[in-house]
Amino acid sequence: MYLAASRARQDTGDPATAPGGRRVAGAVIALGSVSLVTDVSSEMVTAVLPLYLVIGLGLSPLQFGLLDGLYNGATALVRLAGGHAADRWRRHKLVAGTGYALSALSRLGLLAATPAALSTAIAADRVGKGIRTAPRDALITLHSAEHHLGRAFGVHRAMDTTGAMLGPLVAFALLWLTAGAYDAVFVVSFCIGALGLLILIAFVPGAAGRDTGSTSPAAPRSGPSLRSTLALVGAPGFRRVLLAATLLGLVSVTDGFLYLVLQDRLDIDTAYFPLLPLGSAAVYLVLAVPLGRLADRIGRRTPFLLGHLALLGAYAAVLVPVGGPVLVLLLHGIYYAATDGVLMALGGPLVPRERRAGGLALLQTGQATGRLLASVLFGAAWTAWGMTPALVAAACALAVGLGAAAVILRDAR
């Protein structure tokens, strides 16, 4: 029986085979490398897109809010579809690769500066992200020891954030060298995204079954049904985490809006706008692993909530303003380091292994849906009331949502 269990762990890549689970799995490092390269590609676009749409194309805050909501929320349903497909077919790597490929191809659609083409390209990029995220995060959990999930996600997110730091720098350099040619940014972004896909194909192992070539007779021919995945909502602990993630997504202003507000209130030269995400990414990079390890030690609920408190502090620092852009970007980076991977580490153990991708997709879908609505509402509030009243309303909503989430997560196990 012991030999059978040991063989099964080898077939599935279970981290229990590593003594004490102390080493970060090679699969996590490989996935981090893919994310690093892909984030260079995506953050090149993300860094210039708000300025391109609002300053370059003259979109109103409401119009930008709709596109930004599409950018952040188009992943909502496809996250669930991608996660379920990965579990059902036991093809986590294949499903993730499809998402990476779609995102890379979408960069070429940004070359057409018409509203319809832009909307289609943005939606395609976000659909690709939605398809790949849950299978990728499921691979991380399936190749890592449960008591070290915070560290595993911290390492992955640190590598991911390295790409997020390099992306704006590459975009800034290209815009400077080409005298503001956004087309050059989009073409180079496509090439780098294609490189990330090649790294995934060459170096990332699968999770189980057909992904790894396992021939274990105990392995089922197909994974769980969609109904069984959706039934996870009925599990009390998971339901609380899902509700809290959705609520906090609904009361969080998206990055694009925060950078636009920061640029406007502090009168930052538009030439330096693509560098604003660099500050947040630098803080995220430094703190992702330490906060992940801290979450493993003290519990993941507390850092997750404190991260949103840091976001509330960033809003306050913009409104006062105190500390200039440095304080805002510092708090914004802390927010991501304490919440992004920590949420997946918090929700992952509450989901059975065979439904891991689908369960994480449910969490991501709830959060993405909340952010979609948040972006549209903030854009409408900015258009109707002005920038400052809209940000005050957002800060008040986040404060209330944070208190409610603390109560919701109190008994989440």
UniProtKB/TrEMBL annotation:
PROSITE patterns: MFS (PS50850), SUGAR_TRANSPORT_1 (PS00216). InterPro entries: MFS (IPR011701), MFS_dom (IPR020846), MFS_trans_sf (IPR036259), Sugar_transporter_CS (IPR005829). It holds the Pfam family MFS_1. Residues 27-413 form the Major facilitator superfamily (MFS) profile domain. CDD domains: MFS_MJ1317_like. GO terms for cellular component: plasma membrane. It is a multi-pass membrane protein. One of its GO terms (molecular function) is transmembrane transporter activity. Coiled coil: none annotated. The chain crosses the membrane at residues 161-179, 185-208, 271-291, 303-320, 391-409. Keywords: Membrane, Transmembrane, Transmembrane helix. It is found in: Cell membrane. This is MFS transporter. It comes from Actinokineospora fastidiosa.
